Amino acid sequence: MMGRSHLIIGTGVSLSVLQLLGMPVTAPAVTVALIGSLLPDIDEPNSLLVSKALPSSLIRLLQTILLPAAVFVYFYIPSKPWNLLLAVLIGLVSFLPSRSLRKVLMFVIGLGLVFYGHAFAPWNLIGGSLLMLCTTLTHRGLTHTLYGTAVWTGLLYSTTQQQGPEIWVAGGTAYAIHLLADSLTNRGIRPLPPLKLRIRANLMSTGTKHGAVVENVCVVLTFILAWFAFSPLFL
């Protein structure tokens, strides 16, 4: 399913659930719902979430900076032959395609969170470690499992429980809805690896005309649910 459909469906359903349960729909809840609706696709560098967080303009800027950086390392770092090896490595990275460069940036950001982020918030150590792990995963792998859902919901619960349950409920629901939506595709998901159980409804293939029809139907159903949940506020 396309990222924009995940965004609408995951956010719409999770916020409707909050409203139907009588929980407040707050700005933090909306924020984690938006993130949670896209988060399982963090294992795909060209997904909507990652491409918006690390846009093409940033990738081009990085490529522009890396080559001069390689030259600087070679001529101004006295530790031979390591300066040559490091310069070659930096130069090679600058020629990587956008998808691979996003993975490199994700890994570097995760590494920074592990070594320096814990000074600001303890959970940054876990978040950084998970971010680095995601760069090694195949698409629709570990992040598209019940384990991934539990980790995301648990992180939200442990860090926001003082602010009310609506935050972790919204984020966890949006994440789970993403998995449910992907289970409609021909590829489906494996919710409990290493078990071979695969959930797939074979209703659509992402990027096809038929797939677009199924996605649009799901979006319309989401709007109907949202209308049912929120219309009493305006009547």
UniProtKB/TrEMBL annotation:
Lineage, top ranks: Bacteria, Bacillati, Bacillota, Bacilli, Bacillales
InterPro entries: YdjM-like
Keyword presence, Transmembrane helix: yes
Record's protein name: Metal-dependent hydrolase
Alphabetical keyword list: Membrane, Transmembrane, Transmembrane helix
Entry coiled-coil feature ranges: none
UniProt superkingdom: Bacteria
Segments passing through the bilayer: 57-77, 82-98, 104-123, 212-230
